[in-house]
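Why should sequence recovery work at all? Because a backbone constrains its sequence more than one might expect. Tight turns favour small or flexible residues, buried strands favour hydrophobic ones, and helices have their own preferences. The token representation captures these environments compactly. In the example below, the structure is given first.
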């Protein structure tokens, strides 16, 4: 019925999310409103270790005050930190955002860079942020592997890797290109709602019979 295991996982998980009415991750929701790479980059930084609800609220509040990197750079540092609070590590994120805005203005003529290398050179920007910015902001192919993608695919047994970076390298070899962009959205939502980091809802998961559930017991 399915050409490969990723077809089956993608369809099964997407249907289950739809059935449960589970929303897309926050950055996707923001990207849906406006695919502006500036907004994707900034809201992804705010989303790190932060609940979706907070990310959406604080991103919108920030974008009302700073619509582009020039306005972001001009913002008072204390006001910037207070605006993104209670995003996790908001003081550090505020410092990074100011520095990122400065670099983009000075080095990239105010435009968000569109290569992995350039994005990764910005302070506080890791693989997840860079990949999501390329995916959603520039429609460039990149695999965004965060903790949910890494954990779920290891639990299922498709990959056997130690961290998201290793997973990203492995997925580059085996993941069909059509899933490079949408896989993250589905697995992040699935990880938040069903295949949770602690106490995954295996008995309610439509993929339960096929999943190897590697390492799941220790999370119960
Ligand atoms: S069966 Fe359990 S571990 Fe496997 S994908 Fe479903 S929720 Fe996750």
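From this structural description, the recovered sequence reads:
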């Amino acid at each position: 019925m399915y050409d490969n295991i990723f077809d089956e996982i993608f369809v099964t998980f997407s249907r289950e999310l739809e059935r449960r009415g589970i929303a897309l991750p926050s950055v996707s929701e923001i990207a849906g409103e406006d695919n502006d790479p500036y907004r994707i980059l900034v809201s992804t930084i705010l989303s790190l270790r932060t609940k979706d609800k907070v990310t959406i609220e604080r991103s919108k509040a920030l974008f009302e005050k700073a619509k582009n990197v020039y306005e972001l750079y001009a913002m008072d540092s204390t006001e910037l930190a207070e605006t993104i609070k209670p995003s996790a590590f908001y003081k550090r994120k505020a410092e990074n955002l100011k520095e990122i805005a400065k670099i983009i203005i000075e080095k990239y003529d105010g435009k968000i860079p569109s290569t992995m290398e350039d994005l990764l050179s910005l302070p506080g920007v890791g693989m997840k942020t860079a990949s999501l910015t390329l995916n959603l902001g520039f429609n460039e192919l990149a695999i965004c592997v965060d903790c949910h993608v890494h954990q779920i695919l290891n639990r299922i047994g498709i990959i056997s890797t130690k961290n998201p970076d290793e997973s990203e390298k492995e997925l580059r070899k085996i993941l069909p290109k059509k899933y490079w962009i949408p896989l993250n959205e589905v697995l992040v939502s699935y990880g938040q709602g069903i295949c949770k980091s602690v106490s995954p809802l295996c008995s309610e998961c439509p993929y339960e019979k096929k999943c190897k559930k590697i390492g799941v017991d220790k999370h119960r």
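A few observations help interpret the result. The chain has two domains: 5-22+143-219, 26-138.
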